[in-house]
Amino acid sequence: MVNVTGIIILLVVIVISMTLHEAMHAFVGYALGDDTARQQGRLSFNPLKHIDPFMTILLPFVMVMLGAPPFGAAKPVPFNPRRLRHGEWGMLMVALAGPLMNLLLAFICFGIGVVSGIITHAGIQNSLIGSFVGSMVFVNLGFFVFNMLPIPPLDGSRLLYVLAPDIVRRRMEWLEQYGTLLVFGLVVVMSPLISRMMRLMINAIIGGFSWIFGV
Fold first, then answer.
1. Active-site pick, 22, 88, 173, 176
2. pLDDT digit string, tens, across residues 30-52
3. Which residues on neighbouring strands pair with residue 120, listed in sequence order?
4. Contact at 8 Å (CB) between 133 and 124?
5. Contact, 43 vs 114, CB < 8 A?
6. CA-based R_g, the chain, Å
7. Whole-number pLDDT of residue 1
8. ∠ at Cα 19 (18, 23), nearest 5°?
9. What is the sign of the dihedral through the CA atoms of 176, 180, 183 and 188?
């Protein structure tokens, strides 16, 4: 039997999480001197400005239904690297703003869950609000871990752009041309490996949250 309520909660959480993820890219880019996102209407918390029907909704939804960690992406926020202050480091700050927002959302929701008694040593309360809080924690951690993978065009690849030699950067720029197609291919081919790795990292982060909040 299909859990309609659970599906609705999951979709709402995905849209909220990815909207804030992309909005933070836009706001940090704007703060660093680039108004490209503002000119294209992406300096906004309106989900319709950011979501991609496949990467934002369908992909993470399907992965959750298959029992895999949720991961996905939204429409990339446009930016002009020549307008950003601090060069490659500025680009890195823009890139990290999105996944770090997801990590922060997961941390805040976990803390709210603990303080309110929704999350205890026994687990997450089996209720409507418990489902929402749990989804906010796990979906955002899934987005954080997935987007931090050092694969172009994911956000984590920007760290390699800063640290890698020029020959590696040129290869990454070539890979980045294929964008979503490359990510989708990797997900299809390496889904079991990616899922196992993500579970390990998510569980480690949850362990850290539990230690911080004493549960």
1. 22
2. 999 888 888 887 888 888 788 77
3. 123
4. yes
5. no
6. 18
7. 41
8. 115
9. negative
pTM of the prediction?
A: 0.83
What single letter denotes the amino acid at residue 210? S
**Each residue of 188-205: pLDDT tens digit?**
676 678 778 888 999 999
Please give the C-alpha separations between residue 196 and each of 81, 92, 128, 134, in angstroms, as whole numbers.
35, 27, 28, 20
Are residues 157 and 32 in contact, defined by beta-carbon separation less than 8 angstroms?
no
DSSP letter for each residue of 100-141: HHHHHHHHHHHHHHHHTTSEETTEE-SSHHHHHHHHHHHHHH
CB 198 within 8 A of CB 142: yes
The more confident residue out of 13 and 177 is 13
What Cα–Cα distance (Å) separates residue 54 from each residue in 51, 60, 69, 74, 115? 9, 9, 16, 9, 35
Please report the pLDDT score of residue 99 as a whole number.
93
Q: Is 22 a catalytic residue?
A: yes
